[in-house]
């Protein structure tokens, strides 16, 4: 009976050991991250239908490997990551291009649907795109700006 328990316990311990190919996996993740960085620098996330499969094809990796990388290493799926990149760029464009309509910015960063852009932007920032822009581009009207005005006079 003791030998049976020892074997079962030994198998559990062996199953919990790290795989031998761990160094190779870390190297693969590093290479994959470099390819993703290049894809981001090239604004690959702007393509309206940029699916995980299309991204995998563009950066020349296996789709399954890319999906697994996102879920296991980044802790989120590809679509969530891609949406965050789009919203990050949109936030900057809203401030840098105050006369550009939000619908145009939505298309520029990869959203084909204006309402989806507004929904995703609000979900990630807590504000609508228009409110985000107005709040940050509004002239300072608080007490500090009143003090500056008095000092200039």
Summarize the structure.
With 153 residues, the chain is mainly alpha-helical. The chain has helices at residues 2-16, 22-41, 52-59, 63-74, 78-96, 102-108, 114-125, 129-137, 143-152.
Question: Could you explain how this protein is built, in words?
Answer:
With 153 residues, the chain is an all-alpha fold. 73% of the residues lie in helices and 0% in strands. It contains 9 helices and no strands. The protein has helices at 2-16, 22-41, 52-59, 63-74, 78-96, 102-108, 114-125, 129-137, 143-152. The longest helix is centred in the first third of the chain and has 20 residues, at 22-41. The protein is elongated. Residues 141-153 have low confidence and may be disordered.
The end-to-end distance, rounded to whole angstroms, is 93 Å
Which segments are poorly predicted (pLDDT under 50) over 5 or more consecutive residues?
A: 141-153
Helical percent range?
over 70%
Alpha-carbon Rg, integer: 24 Å
Could you describe the largest sheet, including whether it forms a barrel? none
What percentage of the residues does DSSP assign to strands (E)? under 5%
What's the helix-strand series?
HHHHHHHHH
Global structural class = mainly alpha
Number of helices in the DSSP assignment: 9
Overall outline: elongated
Mean pLDDT: 81
Query: What's the total number of strands?
Result: 0
């Amino acid at each position: 009976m003791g030998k049976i328990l020892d074997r079962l316990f030994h198998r559990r311990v062996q199953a919990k050991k790290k795989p031998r190919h761990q160094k190779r996996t870390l190297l693969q993740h590093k290479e994959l991250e470099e390819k993703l960085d290049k894809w981001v620098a090239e604004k690959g996330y702007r393509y309206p239908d940029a699916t995980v499969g299309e991204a995998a094809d563009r950066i020349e990796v296996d789709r399954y490997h890319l999906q697994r990388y996102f879920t296991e290493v980044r802790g989120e799926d590809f679509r969530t990551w891609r949406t965050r990149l789009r919203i990050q760029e949109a936030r900057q464009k809203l401030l840098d291009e105050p006369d550009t309509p939000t619908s145009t910015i939505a298309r520029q960063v990869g959203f084909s649907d204006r309402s989806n852009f507004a929904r995703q932007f609000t979900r990630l920032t807590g504000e609508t795109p228009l409110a985000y822009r107005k709040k940050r581009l509004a002239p300072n009207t608080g007490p500090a700006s009143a003090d500056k005005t008095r000092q200039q006079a």
